[in-house]
Amino acid sequence: MLTPLTDELHYQLALHRIPKIGPTVYRNIMAYTGSAKSFFEMPAGKAAKIPRISQKLLELRKEKDLYLREAGEIISKCQKKNINILTFSNPEFPSRLKSLDDSPMVLYAKGKINFNPSRTIGIVGTRNATEYGRTITKKIIEDLSPYQPTVISGLAYGVDIESHRAALQSKLPTLGILGSSVEQIYPSAHKSIADAMFESGGLIAEYPPGTVMHPSNFPQRNRIIAGLSDALIVVEAAKKGGALITAEIAFSYNREVFAVPGNLHAPYSEGCNHLIKKMKASIFTGPKDLEESLSWSKENLEKNKPKNQTSDFLDFEVEERKILSLLQEYRELEIDQLALMTSISISTLAMKLLNLEFEGLIKSLPGKKYRLT
Question: Which candidate among 69, 88, 123, 295 keeps its CA 20 to 30 Å from the CA of 208?
Fold first, then answer.
């Protein structure tokens, strides 16, 4: 189902079109103003008080009509091509990405996608997969199918496409994270696989339709693969390459990282063996490794499904339920993150947090962070 077209969606995309506006500034704007539209319409003096807002950004804000026109063109293209637009404030936006400092602020997606599945596995590796690598990739997914994970990879040659193909064969949902826009499938040789993925998964990118593909997009998209994965498995990797970049990012996100060990003399095992040696990845020997690390089992699939958190806090006001539910889900969050994710103004949020703290339900931490007691 496509995201409904609203005035605020239009303004959020316009905000995202401002050159060099990063995730931190975008979050600050949304947290302190409550909406992108408010940011564009508020007086310059008031906007200047938003943390990390530069004079350059205030000057660029004057080009509002240009950014709104660009946003309108993007929305029109997405509607024609059946592409869904998810902004950071959309409730369906992947919760696994929301806590990351470098999370994309807008995602474009196509297919029948559950953006917040119970279990996810990222599988990456060399584009020059050997017969051993292809066989191992297929075996990993076959062995993991009883746990019903969503399989995430990058639709590239080699290990990536083998993981998508094996997921389809095992009737598992699979997501391809692209370094291009979702209507520009790259490589084009994988279009038939991509078309099949739309039925129980699909494609995700942070680039709107019509974006010119650039080599730097591909390392950038690796953080999305890493962020969406509960655990990342590196099957085959050379000493340098995208798979190792993804593994390093996943490690920095505190995700579980596994590497399939290989022959000491095989060039496409060097990367995996190096990750294991540096203790940035555990040795992957079979599904039991994941079961133990992630507390998975074949019997508790229903128990592991995301809960409707607000049902646990029915005695509280709507705004308090939002706060408590998010802290239950994410463990701890900064006040700016809470403001953005709840759409509650900073002043109201501060009051609500103080009340909840007095009631002994939450605890304030250094750095303006909060967590449940």
Answer: 123
- Contacts of residue 323, defined as CB under 8 A and 6 or more positions apart, other chains included, come to 338, 342, 344, 349, 352, 353, 356, 362
pTM confidence score:
0.80
pLDDT the model gives residue 51: 87
Please identify, in words, the CATH class of the domain defined by 1-80.
mainly alpha
Would you say residue 312 has pLDDT above 50? yes
Q: What integer is the mean pLDDT of 107-131?
A: 95
75 sits in the region (left: phi over 0; alpha: psi -120 to 50; else beta) called alpha
Give Cβ neighbours of residue 359 (< 8 Å, ≥ 6 apart): none
C-beta neighbour count of 183 within 10 angstroms:
20
pLDDT per residue over 157-195, tens digit each?
A: 999 999 999 999 999 999 999 999 999 998 999 999 999
> Which CATH architecture best describes the domain 309-372?
Orthogonal Bundle (1.10)
* Structure tokens, 27: 């979050």
Query: 120-294 adopts what CATH topology?
Result: Rossmann fold (3.40.50)
- For CATH 1.10.150, the residue range(s) in the chain are 1-80
